[in-house]
Amino acid sequence: MTASDKTKSANKNTITIINNKNNQRHELDILSGTVGPDVIDVRKLYHDLNLFTYDPGYTSTASCDSAITYIDGEKGILMHRGYLIEELASESDFMDVSYMLLFGELPNARQQKRFNTEIKMQSLVDEQLMRFYNGFRRDAHPMAIMVGVVGALSAFYHDSLDISDPKQRHLATIRLIAKMPTIAAMAYKYAIGQPFVYPDNSLSYTGNFLKMMFSVPAEDYIPNPVLERAIDCLFVLHADHEQNASTSTVRLAGSSQANPFACIAAGIASLWGPAHGGANEAVLNMLKVIGDKERIPEFIAKAKDRNDPFRLMGFGHRVYKNYDPRAKVLKESAHAVLKELGVEDQPLFELALELERIALEDEYFIKKKLFPNVDFYSGIILQAMGFPSSMFTVMFAIPRTAGWLSQWHEMLGESVQKIGRPRQRYTGKDHRKFVPKDKRV
Ligand code: SDX
Fold first, then answer.
1. DSSP assignment string, 138-166
2. Which of 3, 101, 161, 254 might form a disulfide with 259, Cβ 3.0–4.6 angstroms?
3. Quick one: which of 263, 271, 252 has its CA closest to 161?
4. Which pLDDT score is estimated for 417?
Protein backbone atom coordinates (compact mmCIF):
# COMPACT_ATOMS: atom_id res chain seq x y z
CA MET A 1 0.00 0.00 0.00
CA THR A 2 1.54 3.34 -0.86
CA ALA A 3 0.61 6.72 0.51
CA SER A 4 0.18 9.19 -2.35
CA ASP A 5 0.91 12.90 -1.86
CA LYS A 6 -1.23 14.84 0.55
CA THR A 7 -4.31 16.07 -1.29
CA LYS A 8 -6.04 19.24 -0.15
CA SER A 9 -9.81 18.96 -0.60
CA ALA A 10 -11.97 22.06 -0.42
CA ASN A 11 -11.96 22.65 3.32
CA LYS A 12 -9.60 20.18 5.00
CA ASN A 13 -6.23 18.55 4.77
CA THR A 14 -6.30 14.86 3.84
CA ILE A 15 -3.99 12.06 2.78
CA THR A 16 -5.05 9.38 0.31
CA ILE A 17 -3.88 5.81 0.78
CA ILE A 18 -4.05 3.25 -2.01
CA ASN A 19 -4.12 -0.44 -1.25
CA ASN A 20 -2.18 -2.10 -4.09
CA LYS A 21 -3.83 -5.44 -3.28
CA ASN A 22 -7.27 -4.26 -4.34
CA ASN A 23 -6.58 -0.76 -5.72
CA GLN A 24 -8.80 0.60 -2.95
CA ARG A 25 -8.27 4.35 -2.38
CA HIS A 26 -9.18 5.90 0.92
CA GLU A 27 -8.94 9.46 2.18
CA LEU A 28 -7.89 10.11 5.76
CA ASP A 29 -8.14 13.48 7.49
CA ILE A 30 -4.94 15.20 8.61
CA LEU A 31 -5.43 17.14 11.84
CA SER A 32 -3.21 19.95 13.11
CA GLY A 33 -2.34 20.93 16.67
CA THR A 34 -1.14 24.31 17.93
CA VAL A 35 2.45 23.43 17.03
CA GLY A 36 4.31 20.25 16.09
CA PRO A 37 3.64 17.47 13.58
CA ASP A 38 0.16 17.07 12.05
CA VAL A 39 -1.57 13.75 12.71
CA ILE A 40 -3.35 11.31 10.41
CA ASP A 41 -6.76 10.50 11.86
CA VAL A 42 -6.96 6.69 11.67
CA ARG A 43 -9.80 6.27 14.16
CA LYS A 44 -12.11 4.78 11.50
CA LEU A 45 -9.44 2.81 9.63
CA TYR A 46 -10.40 -0.60 11.06
CA HIS A 47 -14.14 0.09 10.68
CA ASP A 48 -13.81 1.34 7.08
CA LEU A 49 -10.93 -0.78 5.74
CA ASN A 50 -10.51 -3.68 8.22
CA LEU A 51 -6.91 -2.52 8.68
CA PHE A 52 -4.84 -1.73 11.82
CA THR A 53 -1.94 0.70 11.95
CA TYR A 54 1.29 -0.94 13.15
CA ASP A 55 3.61 0.94 15.51
CA PRO A 56 5.26 -1.16 18.28
CA GLY A 57 6.63 1.24 20.93
CA TYR A 58 4.41 3.99 19.55
CA THR A 59 7.31 5.75 17.79
CA SER A 60 4.94 7.56 15.38
CA THR A 61 1.64 7.45 17.25
CA ALA A 62 -0.23 10.28 18.95
CA SER A 63 -2.30 8.59 21.65
CA CYS A 64 -4.35 11.63 22.65
CA ASP A 65 -4.90 15.37 22.45
CA SER A 66 -3.06 17.25 25.19
CA ALA A 67 -2.51 20.89 26.05
CA ILE A 68 -0.12 20.31 28.94
CA THR A 69 3.39 19.72 27.57
CA TYR A 70 5.03 20.20 24.21
CA ILE A 71 8.43 18.77 23.23
CA ASP A 72 10.37 19.57 20.05
CA GLY A 73 12.90 16.72 20.13
CA GLU A 74 14.95 17.96 17.19
CA LYS A 75 15.46 21.39 18.73
CA GLY A 76 15.63 20.24 22.36
CA ILE A 77 12.64 22.35 23.40
CA LEU A 78 10.36 21.51 26.35
CA MET A 79 7.33 23.69 27.27
CA HIS A 80 4.64 23.30 29.91
CA ARG A 81 1.44 25.21 29.09
CA GLY A 82 3.56 27.31 26.69
CA TYR A 83 6.29 28.23 29.16
CA LEU A 84 9.87 27.10 28.44
CA ILE A 85 11.29 24.67 31.02
CA GLU A 86 14.38 26.85 31.43
CA GLU A 87 12.22 29.81 32.54
CA LEU A 88 10.08 27.68 34.84
CA ALA A 89 13.21 26.15 36.43
CA SER A 90 14.79 29.53 37.11
CA GLU A 91 11.74 31.75 37.73
CA SER A 92 9.05 29.51 39.20
CA ASP A 93 8.78 26.82 41.88
CA PHE A 94 7.36 23.31 42.06
CA MET A 95 4.09 24.27 43.78
CA ASP A 96 3.33 26.91 41.14
CA VAL A 97 4.31 24.58 38.28
CA SER A 98 2.10 21.83 39.77
CA TYR A 99 -0.83 24.25 39.91
CA MET A 100 -0.18 25.34 36.32
CA LEU A 101 0.04 21.75 35.04
CA LEU A 102 -3.26 20.93 36.75
CA PHE A 103 -5.26 24.09 36.03
CA GLY A 104 -3.60 25.55 32.92
CA GLU A 105 -2.35 28.88 34.26
CA LEU A 106 0.28 30.03 36.75
CA PRO A 107 -1.54 30.87 40.03
CA ASN A 108 -2.10 34.41 41.26
CA ALA A 109 -1.29 35.19 44.89
CA ARG A 110 -4.73 34.10 46.17
CA GLN A 111 -4.74 30.87 44.14
CA GLN A 112 -1.16 30.10 45.19
CA LYS A 113 -1.92 30.58 48.90
CA ARG A 114 -5.04 28.42 48.69
CA PHE A 115 -3.31 25.62 46.77
CA ASN A 116 -0.27 25.58 49.06
CA THR A 117 -2.56 25.48 52.12
CA GLU A 118 -4.62 22.61 50.66
CA ILE A 119 -1.39 20.66 50.07
CA LYS A 120 -0.04 21.33 53.57
CA MET A 121 -3.34 20.25 55.15
CA GLN A 122 -2.93 16.85 53.48
CA SER A 123 0.77 16.19 54.18
CA LEU A 124 0.11 13.66 56.98
CA VAL A 125 -0.73 10.03 56.24
CA ASP A 126 -3.15 7.86 58.20
CA GLU A 127 -1.36 6.53 61.28
CA GLN A 128 -2.52 3.02 60.38
CA LEU A 129 -0.56 3.31 57.12
CA MET A 130 2.67 3.45 59.13
CA ARG A 131 2.17 -0.19 60.09
CA PHE A 132 2.17 -1.07 56.39
CA TYR A 133 5.91 -0.44 56.31
CA ASN A 134 6.59 -3.15 58.88
CA GLY A 135 5.49 -5.70 56.29
CA PHE A 136 8.52 -4.88 54.13
CA ARG A 137 12.10 -6.12 54.61
CA ARG A 138 14.38 -3.31 55.72
CA ASP A 139 16.35 -3.76 52.51
CA ALA A 140 13.27 -3.49 50.27
CA HIS A 141 13.88 -1.13 47.34
CA PRO A 142 12.08 2.16 48.16
CA MET A 143 10.29 2.02 44.80
CA ALA A 144 8.77 -1.33 45.83
CA ILE A 145 7.48 0.42 48.95
CA MET A 146 6.18 3.37 46.93
CA VAL A 147 4.23 1.11 44.55
CA GLY A 148 2.72 -0.79 47.49
CA VAL A 149 1.95 2.09 49.82
CA VAL A 150 0.60 4.49 47.17
CA GLY A 151 -1.67 1.77 45.80
CA ALA A 152 -2.80 1.07 49.38
CA LEU A 153 -3.94 4.70 49.84
CA SER A 154 -7.16 3.61 48.08
CA ALA A 155 -7.80 1.40 51.14
CA PHE A 156 -7.71 4.46 53.41
CA TYR A 157 -9.24 7.38 51.56
CA HIS A 158 -12.65 6.08 50.49
CA ASP A 159 -14.00 9.64 50.15
CA SER A 160 -11.80 10.35 47.13
CA LEU A 161 -12.21 7.28 44.93
CA ASP A 162 -15.23 8.24 42.84
CA ILE A 163 -13.73 9.55 39.59
CA SER A 164 -17.12 10.81 38.40
CA ASP A 165 -17.18 13.36 41.24
CA PRO A 166 -14.99 16.43 40.48
CA LYS A 167 -14.66 17.17 44.22
CA GLN A 168 -13.34 13.67 44.89
CA ARG A 169 -10.98 13.87 41.91
CA HIS A 170 -9.61 17.14 43.28
CA LEU A 171 -9.27 15.77 46.84
CA ALA A 172 -7.40 12.68 45.58
CA THR A 173 -5.10 14.95 43.57
CA ILE A 174 -4.26 17.12 46.57
CA ARG A 175 -3.77 14.06 48.76
CA LEU A 176 -1.38 12.39 46.30
CA ILE A 177 0.77 15.47 45.68
CA ALA A 178 0.85 16.18 49.42
CA LYS A 179 1.57 12.66 50.62
CA MET A 180 4.18 11.50 48.11
CA PRO A 181 7.06 13.26 49.96
CA THR A 182 5.82 11.91 53.31
CA ILE A 183 5.53 8.33 52.01
CA ALA A 184 8.93 8.62 50.29
CA ALA A 185 10.71 9.95 53.38
CA MET A 186 9.10 7.20 55.47
CA ALA A 187 10.47 4.59 53.05
CA TYR A 188 13.96 6.02 53.57
CA LYS A 189 13.63 6.24 57.36
CA TYR A 190 12.32 2.67 57.46
CA ALA A 191 15.35 1.47 55.46
CA ILE A 192 17.85 3.09 57.83
CA GLY A 193 16.02 2.20 61.04
CA GLN A 194 15.31 5.76 62.09
CA PRO A 195 11.91 6.98 63.35
CA PHE A 196 9.48 8.49 60.87
CA VAL A 197 9.47 12.29 60.94
CA TYR A 198 6.09 14.02 60.80
CA PRO A 199 5.56 16.77 58.19
CA ASP A 200 6.33 20.35 59.26
CA ASN A 201 3.82 22.68 57.62
CA SER A 202 5.84 25.74 58.55
CA LEU A 203 8.30 24.74 55.79
CA SER A 204 8.05 24.80 52.00
CA TYR A 205 7.12 21.63 50.09
CA THR A 206 10.77 20.76 49.47
CA GLY A 207 11.99 22.09 52.83
CA ASN A 208 9.48 19.83 54.55
CA PHE A 209 10.63 16.89 52.43
CA LEU A 210 14.30 17.50 53.34
CA LYS A 211 13.35 17.66 57.02
CA MET A 212 11.33 14.43 56.86
CA MET A 213 14.29 12.80 55.13
CA PHE A 214 17.26 14.02 57.12
CA SER A 215 16.15 15.30 60.52
CA VAL A 216 16.17 13.19 63.69
CA PRO A 217 14.07 13.83 66.80
CA ALA A 218 17.19 14.39 68.88
CA GLU A 219 18.36 17.41 66.89
CA ASP A 220 16.97 20.66 65.50
CA TYR A 221 16.93 20.78 61.70
CA ILE A 222 16.84 23.76 59.35
CA PRO A 223 16.88 22.93 55.62
CA ASN A 224 19.86 24.36 53.74
CA PRO A 225 18.19 26.98 51.47
CA VAL A 226 20.56 26.24 48.56
CA LEU A 227 19.73 22.53 48.69
CA GLU A 228 16.03 23.32 49.20
CA ARG A 229 16.10 25.44 46.03
CA ALA A 230 18.10 22.79 44.13
CA ILE A 231 15.57 20.07 45.00
CA ASP A 232 12.69 22.38 44.08
CA CYS A 233 14.35 23.04 40.71
CA LEU A 234 14.88 19.29 40.24
CA PHE A 235 11.18 18.74 40.99
CA VAL A 236 10.19 21.37 38.40
CA LEU A 237 12.38 19.66 35.80
CA HIS A 238 10.78 16.25 36.47
CA ALA A 239 7.15 17.35 36.77
CA ASP A 240 5.80 16.30 33.38
CA HIS A 241 7.03 15.15 29.99
CA GLU A 242 4.23 14.51 27.47
CA GLN A 243 3.14 10.91 26.81
CA ASN A 244 6.17 9.02 28.20
CA ALA A 245 5.88 5.40 29.33
CA SER A 246 4.71 6.08 32.90
CA THR A 247 2.30 8.84 31.89
CA SER A 248 0.83 6.57 29.22
CA THR A 249 0.53 3.89 31.92
CA VAL A 250 -1.41 6.29 34.16
CA ARG A 251 -3.67 7.28 31.25
CA LEU A 252 -4.31 3.66 30.30
CA ALA A 253 -5.08 2.68 33.91
CA GLY A 254 -7.31 5.76 34.22
CA SER A 255 -9.17 4.87 31.03
CA SER A 256 -10.46 1.71 32.75
CA GLN A 257 -11.87 4.07 35.43
CA ALA A 258 -9.47 2.74 38.08
CA ASN A 259 -9.24 4.94 41.16
CA PRO A 260 -6.55 7.68 41.18
CA PHE A 261 -4.35 5.98 43.79
CA ALA A 262 -4.25 2.78 41.70
CA CYS A 263 -3.42 4.82 38.57
CA ILE A 264 -0.52 6.63 40.22
CA ALA A 265 0.78 3.35 41.70
CA ALA A 266 0.79 1.98 38.13
CA GLY A 267 2.73 5.02 36.97
CA ILE A 268 5.29 4.53 39.75
CA ALA A 269 5.74 0.90 38.71
CA SER A 270 6.34 1.89 35.09
CA LEU A 271 8.72 4.71 36.00
CA TRP A 272 10.91 2.26 37.97
CA GLY A 273 12.32 0.65 34.82
CA PRO A 274 16.00 1.50 34.07
CA ALA A 275 15.01 2.46 30.50
CA HIS A 276 12.80 5.16 32.07
CA GLY A 277 12.96 6.82 35.48
CA GLY A 278 15.16 4.09 36.93
CA ALA A 279 17.97 5.39 34.71
CA ASN A 280 19.08 8.00 37.27
CA GLU A 281 20.00 5.23 39.71
CA ALA A 282 21.51 3.19 36.86
CA VAL A 283 23.70 6.16 35.80
CA LEU A 284 25.33 6.36 39.19
CA ASN A 285 25.85 2.60 39.33
CA MET A 286 27.38 2.80 35.83
CA LEU A 287 29.74 5.62 36.84
CA LYS A 288 30.85 3.64 39.87
CA VAL A 289 31.57 0.59 37.67
CA ILE A 290 33.51 2.72 35.15
CA GLY A 291 35.37 4.16 38.13
CA ASP A 292 38.12 5.94 36.27
CA LYS A 293 38.47 8.18 33.21
CA GLU A 294 40.96 5.67 31.80
CA ARG A 295 38.16 3.10 31.46
CA ILE A 296 35.73 5.38 29.60
CA PRO A 297 36.83 4.19 26.10
CA GLU A 298 36.17 0.58 27.16
CA PHE A 299 32.58 1.40 28.11
CA ILE A 300 31.98 3.60 25.07
CA ALA A 301 33.02 0.59 22.96
CA LYS A 302 30.63 -1.66 24.89
CA ALA A 303 27.78 0.85 24.37
CA LYS A 304 28.48 0.82 20.61
CA ASP A 305 28.70 -2.98 20.35
CA ARG A 306 25.35 -4.28 19.07
CA ASN A 307 26.13 -7.67 20.61
CA ASP A 308 26.65 -6.12 24.05
CA PRO A 309 23.45 -5.31 25.99
CA PHE A 310 25.30 -2.49 27.80
CA ARG A 311 23.92 0.98 27.14
CA LEU A 312 25.25 4.32 28.28
CA MET A 313 22.70 5.08 30.98
CA GLY A 314 21.46 8.65 31.01
CA PHE A 315 22.10 8.91 27.26
CA GLY A 316 19.62 8.82 24.41
CA HIS A 317 15.94 9.56 24.31
CA ARG A 318 12.91 8.51 22.27
CA VAL A 319 11.99 12.12 21.56
CA TYR A 320 15.08 14.29 22.11
CA LYS A 321 17.52 14.07 19.21
CA ASN A 322 19.32 17.01 20.77
CA TYR A 323 20.52 17.87 24.26
CA ASP A 324 17.68 17.34 26.79
CA PRO A 325 17.07 20.90 28.06
CA ARG A 326 16.52 19.51 31.55
CA ALA A 327 19.99 17.92 31.53
CA LYS A 328 21.51 21.32 30.72
CA VAL A 329 19.84 22.89 33.77
CA LEU A 330 20.83 19.95 35.99
CA LYS A 331 24.45 20.14 34.82
CA GLU A 332 24.58 23.80 35.92
CA SER A 333 22.73 23.01 39.14
CA ALA A 334 25.25 20.26 39.93
CA HIS A 335 28.07 22.81 39.88
CA ALA A 336 26.16 25.06 42.32
CA VAL A 337 25.21 22.22 44.70
CA LEU A 338 28.71 20.72 44.77
CA LYS A 339 30.18 24.18 45.42
CA GLU A 340 27.67 24.81 48.24
CA LEU A 341 28.54 21.45 49.77
CA GLY A 342 32.25 22.08 49.30
CA VAL A 343 32.68 18.92 47.23
CA GLU A 344 33.65 20.51 43.91
CA ASP A 345 36.14 17.77 43.26
CA GLN A 346 33.33 15.20 43.22
CA PRO A 347 35.10 12.43 41.23
CA LEU A 348 31.84 11.03 39.83
CA PHE A 349 30.89 14.47 38.48
CA GLU A 350 34.29 14.83 36.83
CA LEU A 351 33.87 11.34 35.40
CA ALA A 352 30.39 12.20 34.08
CA LEU A 353 31.65 15.40 32.45
CA GLU A 354 34.49 13.48 30.74
CA LEU A 355 32.16 10.68 29.67
CA GLU A 356 29.80 13.23 28.12
CA ARG A 357 32.68 15.00 26.36
CA ILE A 358 34.03 11.79 24.83
CA ALA A 359 30.60 10.42 23.85
CA LEU A 360 29.52 13.66 22.17
CA GLU A 361 32.65 13.59 20.02
CA ASP A 362 32.08 9.96 19.01
CA GLU A 363 30.66 9.25 15.54
CA TYR A 364 28.23 6.60 16.89
CA PHE A 365 26.58 8.97 19.34
CA ILE A 366 26.60 11.85 16.87
CA LYS A 367 25.03 9.76 14.09
CA LYS A 368 22.36 8.27 16.36
CA LYS A 369 21.79 11.69 18.00
CA LEU A 370 22.39 10.34 21.48
CA PHE A 371 22.72 13.13 24.02
CA PRO A 372 22.59 13.24 27.83
CA ASN A 373 19.02 13.12 29.12
CA VAL A 374 17.43 14.26 32.36
CA ASP A 375 18.82 11.26 34.24
CA PHE A 376 22.49 11.80 33.44
CA TYR A 377 23.30 14.46 36.02
CA SER A 378 20.44 14.21 38.51
CA GLY A 379 22.03 11.38 40.46
CA ILE A 380 25.26 13.32 40.93
CA ILE A 381 23.34 16.11 42.65
CA LEU A 382 21.24 13.77 44.75
CA GLN A 383 24.20 11.72 45.90
CA ALA A 384 26.11 14.87 46.87
CA MET A 385 23.10 15.88 48.98
CA GLY A 386 23.18 12.58 50.83
CA PHE A 387 20.37 10.71 49.08
CA PRO A 388 21.19 7.01 48.56
CA SER A 389 20.98 5.94 44.87
CA SER A 390 18.01 3.70 45.74
CA MET A 391 16.03 6.90 46.43
CA PHE A 392 16.82 8.57 43.08
CA THR A 393 13.83 7.19 41.17
CA VAL A 394 11.61 7.96 44.15
CA MET A 395 12.80 11.57 43.73
CA PHE A 396 11.59 11.35 40.14
CA ALA A 397 8.20 9.88 41.14
CA ILE A 398 7.43 12.63 43.68
CA PRO A 399 7.31 15.53 41.21
CA ARG A 400 6.05 13.43 38.31
CA THR A 401 2.92 12.76 40.36
CA ALA A 402 1.78 16.31 39.55
CA GLY A 403 2.29 15.63 35.83
CA TRP A 404 0.62 12.22 35.96
CA LEU A 405 -2.41 13.73 37.72
CA SER A 406 -2.67 16.65 35.28
CA GLN A 407 -2.69 14.16 32.39
CA TRP A 408 -5.20 11.96 34.27
CA HIS A 409 -7.54 14.93 34.74
CA GLU A 410 -7.14 15.89 31.08
CA MET A 411 -8.02 12.35 29.99
CA LEU A 412 -11.10 12.24 32.25
CA GLY A 413 -12.14 15.64 30.90
CA GLU A 414 -12.27 14.43 27.30
CA SER A 415 -15.75 14.64 25.74
CA VAL A 416 -15.55 11.02 24.55
CA GLN A 417 -14.38 8.62 27.30
CA LYS A 418 -12.95 5.44 25.81
CA ILE A 419 -11.02 2.65 27.49
CA GLY A 420 -7.55 2.38 25.95
CA ARG A 421 -7.40 -0.94 24.09
CA PRO A 422 -4.67 -1.31 21.42
CA ARG A 423 -4.90 -4.18 18.88
CA GLN A 424 -2.05 -6.32 17.44
CA ARG A 425 -0.66 -8.01 14.39
CA TYR A 426 -1.23 -11.71 15.18
CA THR A 427 1.77 -13.88 14.26
CA GLY A 428 0.85 -17.06 16.15
CA LYS A 429 -0.60 -20.39 14.92
CA ASP A 430 -3.81 -20.45 12.88
CA HIS A 431 -6.64 -22.72 14.09
CA ARG A 432 -5.50 -26.36 14.68
CA LYS A 433 -7.08 -29.52 16.18
CA PHE A 434 -6.56 -30.21 19.90
CA VAL A 435 -3.99 -33.01 20.57
CA PRO A 436 -5.02 -35.39 23.38
CA LYS A 437 -2.30 -36.17 25.99
CA ASP A 438 -1.71 -39.73 24.78
CA LYS A 439 -1.12 -38.49 21.20
CA ARG A 440 1.51 -35.89 22.09
CA VAL A 441 5.16 -36.67 21.20
C1 SDX B 1 13.43 9.04 30.72
O2 SDX B 1 10.01 9.33 27.25
C3 SDX B 1 10.32 10.24 28.12
O4 SDX B 1 9.96 11.39 28.01
C5 SDX B 1 11.09 9.73 29.32
C6 SDX B 1 11.65 10.76 30.26
C7 SDX B 1 10.58 11.49 31.05
O8 SDX B 1 10.85 12.61 31.52
O9 SDX B 1 9.51 10.88 31.27
O10 SDX B 1 12.40 11.73 29.52
C11 SDX B 1 12.58 10.12 31.29
O12 SDX B 1 13.04 7.92 30.71
C13 SDX B 1 14.74 9.41 30.08
C14 SDX B 1 15.46 8.19 29.44
C15 SDX B 1 16.19 7.43 30.55
N16 SDX B 1 16.76 6.16 30.03
C17 SDX B 1 18.06 5.98 29.85
O18 SDX B 1 18.90 6.87 30.01
C19 SDX B 1 18.44 4.55 29.46
C20 SDX B 1 19.45 4.58 28.31
N21 SDX B 1 18.79 5.06 27.08
C22 SDX B 1 18.19 4.08 26.25
O23 SDX B 1 17.89 2.83 26.71
C24 SDX B 1 17.35 4.65 25.12
O25 SDX B 1 18.01 5.74 24.60
C26 SDX B 1 15.92 5.02 25.44
C27 SDX B 1 15.18 3.90 26.06
C28 SDX B 1 15.88 6.21 26.37
C29 SDX B 1 15.24 5.41 24.14
O30 SDX B 1 15.24 4.29 23.35
P31 SDX B 1 14.51 4.27 21.90
O32 SDX B 1 13.93 5.57 21.58
O33 SDX B 1 13.62 3.08 21.84
O34 SDX B 1 15.70 4.12 20.94
P35 SDX B 1 16.35 2.77 20.51
O36 SDX B 1 16.48 1.86 21.69
O37 SDX B 1 15.62 2.25 19.33
O38 SDX B 1 17.82 3.27 20.12
C39 SDX B 1 18.06 3.77 18.82
C40 SDX B 1 19.51 3.35 18.54
C41 SDX B 1 19.75 1.86 18.80
O42 SDX B 1 20.80 1.44 17.95
P43 SDX B 1 20.40 0.66 16.55
O44 SDX B 1 19.54 -0.54 16.98
O45 SDX B 1 19.63 1.66 15.73
O46 SDX B 1 21.73 0.26 15.97
O47 SDX B 1 20.39 4.05 19.46
C48 SDX B 1 21.04 3.09 20.29
C49 SDX B 1 20.27 1.80 20.21
O50 SDX B 1 21.12 0.69 20.45
N51 SDX B 1 21.01 3.64 21.65
C52 SDX B 1 22.01 3.58 22.51
C53 SDX B 1 21.55 4.23 23.66
N54 SDX B 1 20.30 4.66 23.47
C55 SDX B 1 19.96 4.28 22.21
N56 SDX B 1 23.24 3.05 22.41
C57 SDX B 1 24.04 3.18 23.51
N58 SDX B 1 23.67 3.81 24.66
C59 SDX B 1 22.44 4.34 24.76
N60 SDX B 1 22.08 4.96 25.89
1. TT--HHHHHHHHHHHGGGT-GGG--TT-H
2. 161
3. 263
4. 86
